[in-house]
Each structure stands twice: as C-alpha cells, then as structure tokens.
Specification:
four-stranded mixed beta sheet, alpha/beta, Nucleotidyltransferase, domain 5, 2 domains, homodimer, 9 strands, Euk-type_GlcNAc_Kinase (chains A, B), 12 helices, glucosamine kinase activity (chains A, B), transferase (chains A, B)
Chain lengths: 295, 295
C-alpha cells in the first residue's frame, strides 16, 4: 500500500492533502509560505512541514514519505528551472511540480473542457480543451495582470488624482480615497511610489463597495477591467466551451458584472486547487487508463 | 554694481546664467545633477560649480557671489522643506527657490498669459493668468504623468504583451518590440519589473517612429495620450487664452498631433527655462515696478 500527495503552495501559505490511490483524502496539513520564486529553501521546508502535518492528521506514520507520489502546484513553478530544482530536492518516490494555475484549473473544471480566470492580486487565464492547455495573461501588474487587484487599486489612485486636478469627474469614491490619504495628493504619490501589488490591492474592496451603490468612477473602473477580461476570454475560450469559472478572491465579485454571453457559461468551481492537485496525482500516478498531459 | 543669477537645475544637469540688472546675460556655466529631492548636498555643490563657471565665462571675479540676487528653478523644490533648506545654505544676498516648472513657464510665455505642458519623462501642466499660476498633473508615472515618456513606454510594453497573448491586435510596432526582447515575453516582464521612469522612456522614439508610418498600435497609444493631455488643457487652460506651448523632449513630437482647437493656440516657446530664471530675477530683484507673484 502507498499514498498520493497533493500540494497547493503560494506566497500566503501551503496546504498538503494525503490521499489513497483512489484520491480519497485521508488527512490535510498546513504550513507557511511556499513561493519557489522568492525563497526556494523556505518553500521546500514548508512543503515538508505541511506534508508531515497531513500524515499526522491522517494518523499515518510519516515514514511513508519516501513512497509517496506527489503533485505539487506552486506559484512560480513555471519560471526557469524552479520546478526541476525543487523536484531534485524532494524525498518523494515521484513528484510532478506544476504551476499553481494548473491545479486550480483541474480543481475547478475537473476532467471537463473549460476555462478559468484566476483573479486575485494578479490575473491569469487558463483554458483546457481535450489534452491541450493554454495559458494567457499574468505578466505582473506593471505591464499586465489586467483586471487583477493591483491594477484596480492603481487605477483608482490615478482616477483620484485626475479628479483632484479636475481633469476628470470626482465621485463619492474619489472623495473617500482622498480622505483616506488625509486629502493630500502627495500622500497618494508617496503610497504609490512604495506600494507592492498587494498594497494596491487593499483598495479593491472600496471599489466594489462603491460600485454596488452605482458610483460612476467605481463603475467605470470595473467596466474597463471587465472589458479587458472579456477581451481575454474572446481569445482564449473557444465558442464551443460551456464551462467558465472565475477563481481567486475577486472571481465571485466580478461574476454578476460579466456580459450575458459569459454569464450563461459561468459554473461554480467543482473543487478547490488542493483537490485539483490530488486529482492530478490520481490521473498521473494511480490510474492505468488516463494519463494527464501537462504543458 | 551688483549682478543677478538664474539657475536651471534638474536630474540631468545644472546651468547658471550671470546677468546684469537689466537681465542681459554676461556669462553661462554648467555642471552636474542638481535634484534637491534625491541629493541636497550634491545639488548645492553643482549649483555653486555652475555659478563659479558663469562668473569665469563672464570674466568677472567670483568674489561678487555674496552680493548676487538669484532665482533658482529646481526639480523637487516644490516638495516639503526642500526649497527652504537649500536657500538657507546658499551664500547669495537674495535667493528665490522655485520649482523648475515655474522658470520654464516664464521662459516660454514671458510676461504673457498662457499655458505650458512640460512633456518629458513625466508630464506637468502650468497655466498663468494675470498673477495667478495654476499647476496640475505630475504626480509621477506610477499613478500620474499621463502623456509623459514613462507612461508611453509602459503602455507600449503592455500592448505588446496583450498582442503576444492575442488579446489585442499585433502590429509592426509590437513585433519590433518583441524582437527587441528576443521574442521572449519574460524578458519584457523582467525589464518592466526593474525599470525606472527613464528606462520606460527609452521606448518613446520607436512609438513616434511607427506612428509616422501609421502603425495602428502606435497611433492608438499616442491618441490616448493626446486625449489625456487635452483633457488636462480643457480644465486648466481658460478659453480666453491664446498662448500654449508644449515643452520638454516630447513637446515638439506631440505638437502636430493636437486637435485643431489647440493647434491654433500653439506658439513656439519665447525662451528657455534658464532665460526664464533670469527674467524672474529681474522682476523680483531689479524691477521697481513689477513684483512677480509666485505660488
């Protein structure tokens, strides 16, 4: 008897699921940040901590670690040699190191054809049709990630300064932002100068809150983002597809604002990314009949 | 007998003009960077070096430095205590420390009413009517400086990545940018991650070059910038005004692309910013009749 392992790791934390060969989850463990882009050693440490915790949760001795077959979905795994370097340092029998997007896709749409847009601080499009998986978008908030939280927040600060200069109309939202920065535009400039993507993202809730009460600036910012998201969908999601899920913290917030042609294809995600990792472990390591083709 | 001094200082260098009490320029000196935002001591050192060089150029002994009345137009002088701190450290009899924008305005429009837009790496609007001077825009390229070179370059990289993903149409310009980054979008992301405003600005020439041959992406990027510039002018430039000058490295490039209603108000700048500093020195320190009101 041996076990399967699914890992879902990113900047905010790492989760591990220990499963039997049918994909039934036996135990789940959690740990800290596992971003192989920013700190490979810490990522490896937290992956092993979460794995140990999953063994403990399942009541199974962790001495089985060497016989595990694992699928790891990790932020930054698709960049350079990150996946290969991590894989070489892991104690598992088998390991498939994928981007976090691929396990999110599998979790959300299962073995169906379909498309997901992961809308968090950034944004990423993934479509699967048969054994073909296509990625688009991402690229970081400076010159990409359209529709993501960092871009929304940055856009709101720009609109607020334009309203301050009376170049564009103010609204209750831009006035609320000015108050947040003590009515001093230089405070906005200072904040923006030092802001991380997450810092810009802290402005997202106020945008959706004011959009809910029809604030003109909030609605305009969101409409631009929705047009950009749908421009991506028009490209990546074939007209035949009937399954679209918006994932990430902003996914549910955008759903009701999509155009009718995409609203009608929206489906709740079937499962989360961790379940997706376990499914991919079954498909790759336990199933005789299906071999998952990854890009 | 005493002398007047005009100083034009910014990140790329410092110029000093020694003049008589009528504003006739007797000698000009140059030195290095004088940005009081980034390095106050270096700025002060280069201001004095340029002043010494102006004395030398005029063949006048620099022992007169303590009797000078000076107007200094300096990048960053309008932020916090920069102007007051610099002034306290200068050996001149009188000194008026202004933003670089104000001496550029005076140089360009003289004592007339009018509006200037300074379009370099950033962008800044200044309008004067009678004794009232109004500033708008600026704020840095992260959440402002619309129409400036950093914003143009950043926009081009974003469009190039959108074309790479086939979210938006490619053009010869986006293909040329891809080639510049070895057809690897990750190279664009890396560049953008580390880019200074000036780095983004290095993409400006290619935009205007391709716009000149009607490249659709180049034209679209410039049209957005022009709409933003004119939105600013619609706000800051009163309909009565008949004098508009576009300054900075990008000013002449934008001129022929303005709408007719602003084209007809375009006037070549009367003088440069250094001459503007000398004029303001005459107005403030030598003229009995006129007192220049600054903001």
């Amino acid at each position: 008897m041996t076990y399967l392992l699914g890992i879902d790791g990113g900047g905010t934390g790492c989760r591990a699921a220990l499963a039997d060969l049918n994909g039934r989850i036996l135990g789940i463990g959690k740990s800290g940040s596992a971003n192989v882009m920013t700190d490979m050693d810490m990522a490896r440490g937290n992956i092993m901590d979460a794995t140990d915790a999953a063994f403990a949760s399942a009541g199974i001795d962790k001495s089985h670690v060497g016989s595990l077959s694992a699928v790891l979905g990790l932020a930054g795994a698709n960049v350079g040699d990150n996946a290969a370097n991590l894989k070489a340092s892991l104690p598992f029998k088998d390991a498939l190191v994928l981007s976090d997007g691929l396990i999110a896709l599998q979790g959300a749409i299962g073995n169906n054809d379909g498309t997901v847009v992961i809308l968090g601080t950034g944004s990423l499009f993934i479509a699967r049709e048969g054994d073909k998986v296509q990625f688009a978008g991402g690229w970081g908030f400076k010159v990409g990630d359209l529709g993501g939280g960092a871009r929304l927040g940055r856009h709101l600060l720009e609109e607020t300064l334009l309203a301050y200069d009376r170049f564009r109309p103010a609204s209750e939202l831009t006035q609320a932002v000015m108050q947040r920065y003590e009515n001093n535009p230089h405070n906005i400039v200072r904040f923006a100068h030092a802001a991380t993507p997450s810092d810009f993202g802290t402005l997202v809730p106020i945008i959706f809150d004011y959009a809910a009460v029809e604030d003109a600036v909030a609605l305009a910012i969101l409409q631009i983002a929705i047009d950009q998201i749908e421009q991506g969908l028009d490209t990546i999601m074939s007209a035949r597809q009937t399954r679209l899920s918006l994932l990430g913290g902003l996914g549910p917030l955008y759903e009701k604002r999509l155009s009718a042609r995409y609203q009608e294809k929206l489906q709740k995600p079937l499962n989360d990314a961790l379940a997706g990792a376990v499914q991919l472990a079954v498909l790759n390591f336990a199933s005789k009949s299906a071999e998952y083709i990854h890009v």
